[in-house]
Amino acid sequence: MKFGVVVFPGSNCDRDVAYVTRDLLSVPTRMVWHEETDISDIDVVVIPGGFSYGDYLRCGAIARFSPVMQQVVEHANQGKYVLGICNGFQVLTEAGLLPGALVRNRDLHFICDRVPVKVEHTNLPWTQAYQAGEVITLPIAHGEGCYHADAETLAALQANNQILFSYVGDNPNGSVNGIAGICNRQGNVLGMMPHPERAADVVLGGTHGIKLFEGVLKAAVAYA
């Protein structure tokens, strides 16, 4: 069982994720450089937050063409787990692994805060360690975190229970329907704007995020 954390030029949350998986959960973790073309040893791929390729053109647009992303797509198509956090969520939408798009925040400001997030469904590995309807607190830090999708896509997300996380109360970035995180139809690919890795150690003031990693770890071990 091994986690792989993709590192793009401009990634800045890769070590944060590795700290959770390698040091807190004691799971072998490999940093995967964006030019790599073999990730067959990885069970769970994490695309971390940051500013891949400086966010030129638009967030995630250039990262989508990295050599490693072809491998990530194949990894996902095999039913293996992929998690995209913040910039990673943006990359997953650009790569077509998740529907919709992330655009500029409603007020056009970068937001750095801790926000309440509701766990909508618990029938998938990512959320199985939570209670349905549980409200957790997770950090956010983004300028383009406003989730947007057309009416048909939103209807499909709702019908298939693909919306896993929603903002509670004040919608910080204007995301449609308050969406904070979604999965693909199969449930093995998750993208979310909040940072669970920044809420995984009591030293950081909260541990609500570590349950997400514990849940997918349990599923990945069973899958392997």
TrEMBL record:
Protein name per its UniProtKB record: Phosphoribosylformylglycinamidine synthase subunit PurQ
Function comment: Part of the phosphoribosylformylglycinamidine synthase complex involved in the purines biosynthetic pathway. Catalyzes the ATP-dependent conversion of formylglycinamide ribonucleotide (FGAR) and glutamine to yield formylglycinamidine ribonucleotide (FGAM) and glutamate. The FGAM synthase complex is composed of three subunits. PurQ produces an ammonia molecule by converting glutamine to glutamate. PurL transfers the ammonia molecule to FGAR to form FGAM in an ATP-dependent manner.
Entry EC number(s): 6.3.5.3, 3.5.1.2
InterPro entries xref list: Class_I_gatase-like (IPR029062), PRibForGlyAmidine_synth_PurQ (IPR010075)
GO molecular function: ATP binding; glutaminase activity; phosphoribosylformylglycinamidine synthase activity
Catalyses which reaction(s): N(2)-formyl-N(1)-(5-phospho-beta-D-ribosyl)glycinamide + L-glutamine + ATP + H2O = 2-formamido-N(1)-(5-O-phospho-beta-D-ribosyl)acetamidine + L-glutamate + ADP + phosphate + H(+); L-glutamine + H2O = L-glutamate + NH4(+)
Keyword rRNA-binding (UniProt): no
PROSITE patterns linked to this entry: GATASE_TYPE_1 (PS51273)
Assembly mode: Part of the FGAM synthase complex composed of 1 PurL, 1 PurQ and 2 PurS subunits.
Superkingdom in the source lineage: Bacteria
GO annotation, cellular component aspect: cytoplasm
Pathway: Purine metabolism; IMP biosynthesis via de novo pathway; 5-amino-1-(5-phospho-D-ribosyl)imidazole from N(2)-formyl-N(1)-(5-phospho-D-ribosyl)glycinamide: step 1/2
Localization (cell): Cytoplasm
Active-site annotation: 86 (nucleophile), 195, 197
GO BP: 'de novo' IMP biosynthetic process
A Pfam family: GATase_5
Coarse class of the protein's main subcellular location: cytoplasm
Originating species: Crinalium epipsammum PCC 9333
Keywords: ATP-binding, Cytoplasm, Glutamine amidotransferase, Hydrolase, Ligase, Nucleotide-binding, Purine biosynthesis
Keyword flag Cytoplasm: yes
